[in-house]
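From the shared-data thread, chain only:
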Amino acid sequence: MTNFLDRVKDERSLKALIGLDHPAFNKLLEEFTPCFKQRLRRYRRKAKKRHQRKPGGGRKSILGSIENQLFFILFYLKSYPTFDVLAFTFGISLSCAAASVHRLLPILERAQKNLRVLPKRPSDDPGEIMQLIKNNEHIIVDATERPHFRPKDKEAQKKFYSGKKHQHTVKNTIISDTRKRILVVGETVPGSQHDYSLFKEEFDPKNDLFRSTVVSVDLGYRGIKKDYASPENIRISHKKPRKSKNNPDPKLTPEQRQENQQMSRTRVVVEHAIGGMKIFRVLTVRLRNEINDFSDKVILLACGLWNLKNSFTVQ
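Structure, as tokens:
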């Protein structure tokens, strides 16, 4: 099997294929290689009683080198082809394509974790989350939705249907800093859940999250100043008043419009971070895989790759 990288002509083509340039790919490969070998040794120990061959015997991997294996899984996340297309592209069987994807995803996650580029999860140690937020003078909170296949069950359809997107989706809370570094990725939930109710479930209002950190949110998080402590550190846009008989032409004051513009300039950073991680089409094409936790795993990996390509680390 030839080296896939040898067939890539330039840096632009490599980014189009796997979403990373050569320096980022090589940095990831350095950590991916020992993780891959560790997983192989663990598999051989489990299979030792069943196999008669010595370690290393038998048919070699069709994908070839560890470098090719990493290229393969990054290509899958970047392009999100069907397994039929993936098998045809790499000259392997359909079953081998599917098995390779599910075998390599945990190895890629371990490599990113060792590189400290994976964002934190709300289920992690609350003390670590608090310390991470405290270490940043300004954070930005937003939610992102991704297309999801239409469930067959009627109740599940209602659960996943997003009136905002007019399609079936899943949703995650994203927290970034002002450098576009993704710090926290919330759990994946059905798209019908409101952004703010999801945030309150993941981050207890009883904890003084914003005691020493300024946070910017959009109007989807109305009520956050009442529910959370340290409201003086919370920045939320002004909402235009409702039209009424007493106020037939509602308008924001010039000062309010100016404040909204300033907050928009700050908040756009998280939009850029979300757009950056969505260069991996596994987050933008309608999700096809029905395997448990697949949708949650791929957004975590995509955020980690975004942090990696920008040389960000999450302490």
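The longest helix spans residues 22-47.
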